[in-house]
Specification:
The complex is a heterodimer of chains A (about 110) and B (about 200). Chain A is α/β, with parallel strands linked by helices and about 110 residues long. Chain A has helices at about 5-10, 35-40, 55-65, 80-85, 100-105, and strands spanning about 15, 25-30, 45-50, 65-70, 90-95. A five-stranded mixed beta sheet of chain A has the order 1-5-4-3-2, with helices on both faces. Chain B is built from seven helices and six strands. Chain B has one domain: Histidine kinase-like ATPase, C-terminal domain (Heat Shock Protein 90), CATH 3.30.565.10. By secondary structure, chain B is of the alpha+beta class. Classes of the chains: A alpha/beta (about 110), B alpha+beta (about 200).
């Protein structure tokens, strides 16, 4: 499923790399512990987190994550947005808590296990 | 060979605490490895648990080659790395994040040719402060990897008590046996564990 479709269905706000939304999300991963994401996320995952530090962009690049969704109305730091822009990593935000958003993504057919 | 040993020790240390990949002691191990990679021959680790002031600090000082202004200003940037095997270097940036999440900060002072001092501070009882984890494993991993080429001093204060471990003291008593011999390493681990335990014992007074 393309990120653009997820953005539309879940009413996400896109804050960076809006030119990269035709990328496919192959699955999803949710965690707020960077070391855990580095260990367990899969290439092509969309990542659900409440972390806003620029390090999330580095982890996304390292793991070839297709996009990051910040939940609970969290706003990324300015540095995070500019890094994400230059690395073409879409950062999206929602007011929904993680549990609700992940439920919607699951209903759209995205899975955490492949 | 040396690098291989260090990697094996780190992997072993990580795999036996599978759930604690985020312990601060692993950040310390990362920095110690930076220090040895920078050619340090003397490293001092100072940990201070200032319970009254609600402050937790980890300071690591080395006499390695240091960093110039440019490297220093980029050292917290996750997209800066001196490695050419991958594009991101998360060591110091992850530690800076861990500090920030727990009400503290990361200070880095460095001078080319003289060495580097890294000081990570945290609010001691902040709910998001990560646990220290096993310093005994971290120190043993460094000794295993550096094979006696580095003098390592580890000072750990809690309140008014202090524990000091110094590889120079151990080497003196070894009479030529390698400090990274497996039996010596397990002795070192036990010595550090019991030393740290003695910091927590309730005093009678």
């Amino acid at each position: 499923m393309k990120i653009a479709e997820i953005v539309k269905s879940c009413k996400l706000q896109v804050l960076s790399a809006s030119g990269s939304l035709d990328r496919e999300a192959a699955g999803g991963y949710a965690s707020d512990l960077l070391s855990d994401v580095m260990a367990h996320s899969n290439k092509g995952d969309i990542w659900i987190t409440l972390q806003t530090h620029p390090n999330i962009v580095a982890v996304a690049v390292l793991k070839e994550i297709c996009g990051i969704v910040l939940v609970n109305g969290r706003k990324p730091e300015q540095d995070t947005v500019s890094k994400a822009e230059s690395e073409s990593i879409p950062i999206m935000v929602t007011d929904l808590p993680a549990f609700e958003l992940i439920g919607e993504l699951h209903a759209l057919g995205l899975r955490g296990k492949r | 060979m040396r690098c291989g040993t260090r990697y094996a020790m780190k992997t072993a240390a990580v795999s036996c605490w599978r759930n604690d990949l985020d312990d601060l002691s692993l950040h310390v191990l990362d920095i110690l490895e930076n220090s040895t990679a920078a050619g340090a021959t003397e490293i001092e680790v100072r940990i201070n648990e200032d319970i009254d002031e609600n402050l937790f600090t980890i300071e690591i000082e080395d006499n390695g080659k240091g960093m110039d202004q440019l490297n220093l200003s980029q050292s917290r940037d996750p997209f800066f790395t001196t490695k050419d095997t991958r594009r991101v270097g998360l060591g110091l940036s992850m530690l800076a994040q861990a500090c920030g999440e727990a009400g503290g900060n990361l200070e880095i002072r460095s001078e080319p040719g003289r060495g580097t001092v890294i000081k990570a501070s945290f609010v001691y009882r902040h709910i998001d402060r990560k646990p220290l984890g096993s310093m005994a494993e971290t120190i043993a991993a460094l000794i295993a990897g550096s094979a006696g080429a580095v003098r390592l001093v580890y000072r750990h204060c809690r309140g008014n008590r202090e524990f000091i471990f110094d590889t120079a003291e151990i080497t003196k008593t070894l009479d030529g046996v390698a400090i990274n011999h497996p039996e010596i390493l397990s002795f070192i681990k036990e010595a550090i564990e019991s030393g740290l335990e003695s910091l927590s014992e309730r005093s009678n007074g």
